[in-house]
Give the backbone structure.
Amino acid sequence: MRMQQLTQKARQAAGALALLGIEEKNNALQAIRSAILASADATEAANQTDLARSQAEGLAAPLLKRLKFDSKKIAEVISGMDSLLDLPDPVGRTLLATHLDDGLDLYRVSCPIGVIGVIFESRPDALVQISTLALKSGNAVLLKGGSEALETNRVLARVIGEAAGKAGMPDGWITLLETRLDVRELLDQDETVDLLIPRGSNAFVRAIMDNTRIPVMGHADGVCHLYLDAAADPAMAIRLSLDSKTQYVAVCNAAETILVHQSLAGDFLDELAGALRSAGVTLLGCEQTCARLGCAKVDNWHTEYLDYTAAVKIVSSLDDAISHINRYGSHHTDAIVTADQAAASRFLRAVDSGNVFWNCSTRFSDGFRYGFGAEVGISTSKLHARGPVGLDGLVTYQYRLLGHGQIVADYASGQARFQHQPSGEAYPLQGR
């Protein structure tokens, strides 16, 4: 009953948000920005409580790094909010305009999805990113973060909710859920919740899909690959390998497997292994890699390590690399390093992932770096939204038909005829 009340309240808030203009939403975002800065000491103190508890419970070091929400993280979320404020309103955009007949005009217009539930890992910065994206796109949001970040999330949700409320946002547009029971009850609210976005492993996303009638947009695990082609520049290949693997290991866009063309399996492989090991990376490999480097064999090529561990596999060809990625990857982010444009083109067209790169780090796969302001997740599905899900991924559209008393009977009888001409006009009924 409690969850039903929460989601019904969110539904009412979503209806109010859908009527707001860009100035009202940006004013609320500015208020949230100021409140987050003003409450930094309280937020960091709550985060220290979470960190101490999680460390005592034996949380792994990479996950503790994700959990940390210090002045650097606060500066990063503020920077993300600044970018978000600069973006145009995703709601009310004219996506299509067709002149059906004189005085009968059809428009496809972007609009909010409505009520969105997001279940995410123990990253407090994700709570800020998701909630502010939801607000700017006119959606109410129910948030369930990892239990490790409970105290930090409580402070952030309170600060954001209070600041937005003072700026005129409707009560109930943001709700923090805290328990597994909350999640189980949320899955039953298909009459009031429009979309679920679970962030986590494939098994977790599948479990959510199997237990709800609510549409699910999955942010699955990141088994990302970097393929070093026969025509790769050696210095570039090592530089990109280090950045893709070690720039921040506890994230879904870090490279977990490095594929090396067999022509590079000699001195270059030794140099690559030396560079990675010097950066603290433990290497696992295929039989040929292990024979050369003296490393342990890979148990499962579909593994997201989220740590200073990388798998290295020697492949016989570009097509062998593509086949491996499509079989063992998670369709998240995969990159090729090569000076061969034809090879790059084939790789980008054949790899079935939401993000495919040429000669750049997999770490660029990110909503902020793409200029989306931030992201609610990186979708590995193909419908509605794919890749980093920013503002555009949080809106849908309506067809709005504006007429002057026309009836279908006239067109059925031949008395009137459709013109079906693109008009190029903007939807004329913006505003309240």
About this structure: The domain at 224-364 is CATH 3.40.309.10 (Aldehyde Dehydrogenase; Chain A, domain 2). The chain has two domains: 2-219+376-394, 224-364.
